[in-house]
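To: structure desk
From: M.T.
Subject: fold request, one chain
Message: Could you run this one when you get a chance? Sequence is below, nothing fancy, just the single chain.
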Amino acid sequence: MSERKYLGVTQPIDINKSSKEDEIITEALLETLKEEKQFESEAESKNREVVLGKIDKLVKQFVYEASLKHKLTETLAKSCGGKIFAFGSYRLGVHGAGADIDTLCVVPSHVTRDDFFEIMVDLLKGRSEVSELTPVSSAHVPVIKMQFGGVDIDLTFASLNRPTIPDDFELLDNSILRGLDEKTIRSVNGSRVTDEILRLVPNIPSFRLALRCIKFWAKRRAVYSNSLGFLGGVAWAMLVARICQLYPNACAGTLVYRFFKIFLVWKWPRPVLLKAIENGPMHLRVWNPKFYEVDFEHKMPIITPAYPSMCATHNVSLSTRQIMGSELMRGLSIVERIMKGEAKWTDLFAKDEFFRRYKFYMQVNVTSTDEEASHGLHGFLESRIRQYLVGLENVEHILFVHPYIKSYDHTFVCNTDQEIQDIRNGNIPTQPNTPTPSKDADTPAVVGTNSNTANGENGSPAENASALSDEAQSSEKNGSEQKNIFTSSFYMGLFLKKKSEVSGNSQRMDLSWHTQSFIGLVKKYENWDEQKMTIFIRSLRQEQLPDEVFEGGPRSLLDASEKKSSGKKRKSQTSENSSSEKAAKKAKAASTYVPSTSGISIEKKESENEIQKNTSESSGNDDSKPDADKPDAGPVALEAPVPQPAKSGGIKLKMLGSS
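Reply: Done. Structure tokens follow.
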């Protein structure tokens, strides 16, 4: 009798079908995702097809013009071809309404990456359907970001060692990788990995529904961003695909439950593999922590299945891994109740409370007086901000750093050069209305000459809006020229250690060195223009955050709101009890930190063992079956810092009780 075949590096855990109860729960999941508009309409689907068709024609035009530039005859130039490949969520069939499309532009060998960022960019600039054009040539995978016909597009590039690229060309053969540089291999593998994932999944419909659920959960809980150290779409897809291999006949509801249960206790940095790592004939570098120190340092390795295998999660840090672990713990708790009929899927998708979670935040701001340049600056900052996070992780007083996955982008209309200079210096006015984060900013805000709203400390939103409107009208009457300035703000939450957990007698910590180092890194951006651009970083207490980040919701810290909901008898407490409570708070406050404008530098680096003490991991590199019932590998719930009186923000943070 022949041995049963299976997909993956281990045998399945359970090959039985899900129960009828689980199938009913899966139907409820499908209906919830539809209600949450996670499926696009037929009109949107057709528009995507039209957009991809236009881009494919544009790629052929680009190859033709680049071929003429390289002295090919017109006849040969027309025969060179060129083709685009869609990959990522669109190729996997799990894209939702408004999702972007990852595309790869494949061209013949004589067309270069420089041609792509010159000729192709110029062609795109000439299209009326294109907006927010942002070439990012220095990224790990060079890309052109844009909106084309209302669809967000990420267009990568690969020049293959072939004289022509016909319409029937495919990327499956490993031989196409011969002679390519690392950036091109990474670009090509985006498409190859997506196709390989689909090939390695036993039940594609269940995989797609489960992945839609996990992607939506990750976005709502703000743990969906490869560039900022969380997981991107491909990494989440590979995790779900691995669960599908372990439970090949399970329905989507069961797969989601098993996803949380297994990966909560996964012994990182044990890698997740969909198939054995392949050593191809071309001797390309493949992921191997035994040979490469950089691979050994990966905190949460999820390995791509296409040759050459790479780590799709090299950006994950100790902080982001711990944050994702906490979200997995929360997710498992909710899904367990869903399976028992005690909760609904909407509970799993509740929006994160990032801006109510921490006492202290770092705000990274960039400005530009040129709209086109602002898009490039935003993309560069987003691709580099993780390096600032890693630097802050090494500060002894910091337990972990939590980056927020969205930026807050605005266009301000200024009446004078002084107003522009004020914003360049960091005095960003309060927004009259609550905007949507990142790319969906509303109409430009007008900054008045007497605006007193910097940092959101003065004036109500209604008063500020009225003042700005009045001054804008005054400016129009006087005929003065208005100028625009474009801003982007990124946020990181700081979770600080208690005083008792810090070695020695260090009373203060200084973030200045890491901050100035990161500012210097950003100013090395190839298109940095000191006359048009600025970057400034500041620390803010939670109560100093601008109104816009709360989107009309409550501002209070989570721990404070919990106390209010459970302590309705506070007003009736006796003075004796009140004094006792104050004494307890004061004692607890002695182990937290507050902002200070002065302090001494702390250069001692935090050891990895100390930061990881609440997590368990294994150094093994096999993808053996995990013990899903073993609880010792999961993250622990962390106590939030006690709220302290407001003080001015600054780079340096000081321990309570220090002189």
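Reply (cont.): The longest strand covers residues 483-496. Let me know if you need anything else for the meeting.
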